[in-house]
Amino acid sequence: MVDAFLRSYTQLLVEHPEDISIEISEMDENFDEITIFANSEDIGKLIGKQGRMINSIKTVISGCKAKGGKNYRVNVKPAE
């Protein structure tokens, strides 16, 4: 659920939506790390001015905690 939402939402924000990929790593039973891979030109768009865009993404993802009970860390990295 989280990866499908992130993929569709981040593809709307970037110039190269075909380069978006999401990787979710389970760190322990209550904590997952989400890595958003994007074209290096689009990383700034995903982070936003003063980190506002990535913080809004994190806020929406934290709403998933209420439903699933997991904590999430969100990272943005360039696609290889």
What is this entry, summarized?
The protein is of the alpha+beta class. The protein has helices spanning 2-13, 43-47, 52-68; strands at residues 21-28, 31-38, 71-78.
Low-confidence stretches: none
**Rg (CA only):** 12 Å
Tally of separate helices: 3
Strand content: 25-35%
What's the order of the H and E elements?
A: HEEHHE
Overview of this protein structure:
There is one protein chain. The protein is an alpha+beta fold. Helices cover 42% and strands 30% of the residues. The chain has helices at 2-13, 43-47, 52-68, and strands at residues 21-28, 31-38, 71-78. A three-stranded mixed beta sheet has the order 1-2-3. A hairpin with a 2-residue loop joins β1 (21-28) and β2. The longest helix is centred in the last third of the chain and has 17 residues, at 52-68. The protein is globular, with a radius of gyration of 12 Å.
List the helices and strands and how they pair.
Layout: H1 2-13, E1 21-28, E2 31-38, H2 43-47, H3 52-68, E3 71-78
